[in-house]
Automatic annotation (TrEMBL):
SUPFAM superfamilies cross-referenced by the UniProt entry: Di-copper centre-containing domain
Compositionally biased tracts (Polar residues): 13-22
Region listing for Disordered, in residue ranges: 1-53
Source organism: Staphylotrichum longicolle
The protein's name in its UniProt record: Tyrosinase copper-binding domain-containing protein
Length: 477
């Protein structure tokens, strides 16, 4: 007898018993063995419909109209039927028989007990739809702005940065192999300056380590990272044959548990899985650029990444750590080869829930409000930026050397996306808005220059303010 059927039979024989499936090492969500196949299918379909509902912006929902309604109606009927079956299997009610010994159940009540996310979209589903509306508005504004152009960045030439899960496997594979390629090319950083830098990829980490005190918790935070991403994307394309745009990781989609994010599924076309589970670890104390020390408790991993293209033995981190103990030699610039570590955290992922994005984009009229909320490192669970790092954990926790985890690029592309969507709500007012200081105290202006070490020439804030001018020609979708 199959284990599913055995579980069903056992639960009928002993209605109070709820059998627990063995917990797998990867700590995937637990499955209720008393749930019938029908209920499982419905759950999967409901999840799919919810995904659709989340992904489909208002404009498209309007266009789909009747088809979407039909799907919802079909799901509601099947949802009710599956719930009956589920309750029956769990010994909570009875279906199809009269005069049985079990307590008859009120059908309406069952539906109440299991509210469908389609009928009662929760706050986060509403916020997720709102983000897509905001993105659609931004896209419309930008495409209108460049619509009349004959040269420079036009609607024909604009590069579209897409979410990881929207990329075909071939694009994911070529992005991954371009990163491996950068790790085979010689560095341009002189070895006396950073003896730990052994590849072209490391040049980007050195630049980030060196600029961290200036480019975090400051008026340079968003502009500096925007251009670092651009330089990285360009290098992947020019030196490693990558032909697409930089992908981003939309952390709002898996805010309940990052272990469920496709980008971490550990397959060959993922960015690698979680770190190996290490029991009894201590918390990590990280030093933040604003002088705050933050305690990050152990989460669901803690060791080397075990699966995927960046697993132990297939990928090395050489620079850092700088932001926590035990620190690497020479302020993190010495040679310190080790595996990539992760510790995916369903606690810190709460900080990147959809409503945290809408609060920022809908709630902030000026850049000061926006940056302070986005980059509030001392908060609990932390601003969007910190929560993105902290939910990945370990290598990504190091404020200085975090680009050692290639997820850095996907996370920061998402941070840039949120900024871009915010700018795109009012291009005229927000594109060239500046805010903040360069530590310790000078106010930044559009002419403030940023240094990019060996990865690019210095840039001013003005040069990086508009994603569709100067060197830039990209949008998010
Ligand atoms: Cu950074």
């Amino acid at each position: 007898m199959s284990s599913k059927r055995r579980a069903k039979r056992e639960s009928k024989a002993n209605p109070t018993r709820v059998s627990q499936p063995p917990r797998s090492r990867g700590a995937r969500p637990l499955e209720d063995n008393t749930e019938t196949r029908g209920a499982r299918e419905i759950r999967a379909e409901t999840k799919h419909a919810r995904h659709l509902q989340n992904r489909v912006g208002k404009r498209y929902r309007d266009r789909l109209g009747a088809e979407f309604e039909k799907l919802q109606a079909a799901l509601c009927i099947r949802h009710d039927a599956a719930q009956d079956e589920h309750m029956h299997a769990a010994g909570l009610g009875q279906k199809g028989k009269t005069g049985g010994s079990r307590r008859p159940i009120n059908k309406t009540k069952i539906v109440d007990l299991a509210p469908s996310p389609i009928r009662e979209p929760d706050l986060e589903a509403t916020a997720a739809s709102r983000i897509l509306e905001l993105q659609t508005q931004y896209q419309h504004n930008v495409l209108t702005q460049i619509g009349q152009r004959r040269s420079g960045c036009t609607t024909q030439t604009i590069r579209r940065r897409k979410e990881w899960s929207a990329l075909p496997p071939s694009t994911r594979a070529s992005f991954i192999s371009a990163i491996h390629c950068l790790n085979t090319l010689p560095p341009q950083t002189p070895s006396h300056k950073a003896p730990g830098a052994r590849t072209r990829y490391d040049d980007f980490i050195v630049t980030h380590i060196e600029q961290t005190p200036l480019a975090h918790a400051s008026g340079l935070f968003l502009p500096f990272h925007r251009h670092l991403l651009h330089a990285f994307e360009r290098t992947l394309r020019e030196t490693c044959g990558y032909t697409d745009a930089l992908p981003y990781w939309d952390w709002t989609a898996a805010f309940e548990d990052p272990r469920r994010a496709e980008v971490f599924d550990g397959s060959e076309t993922s960015m690698g899985g979680n770190g190996r589970w290490v029991a009894g670890r201590n918390a990590t104390e990280i030093a933040l650029p604003d002088g705050v020390v933050k305690t990050i408790p152990p989460a669901t991993g803690g060791g080397c990444v075990e699966s995927g293209p960046f697993a132990e033995g297939r990928y090395f981190v050489r620079l850092g750590p700088v932001g926590y103990e035990p620190k690497g030699p020479m302020g993190g610039l010495g040679y310190n080869p080790r595996c990539l570590t992760r510790d995916l955290s369903p606690e810190f992922s709460q900080g990147t829930r959809p409503s945290a994005v809408t609060a920022l984009v809908d709630g902030c009229e000026d850049l000061g409000c926006f940056v302070q909320e986005l980059d509030a490192p001392g908060g609990v669970p932390g601003g969007l930026h910190a929560s993105g790092h902290w939910q990945i954990g370990l290598t990504a926790l190091d404020v200085f050397a975090s680009p050692g985890d290639p997820m850095f690029w996907l996370h920061h592309a998402q941070v840039d996306r949120v900024w871009t969507i915010w700018q795109g709500q009012d291009l005229e007012k927000r594109t060239y808005e500046v805010w903040g200081t360069v530590p310790p105290s000078d106010n930044v202006t559009l002419d403030t220059a940023m240094d990019f070490g060996t990865v690019d020439a210095p840039k001013t804030i003005r040069e990086v303010s508009s994603p569709v001018d100067g060197d830039y020609c990209y949008m998010y979708e």
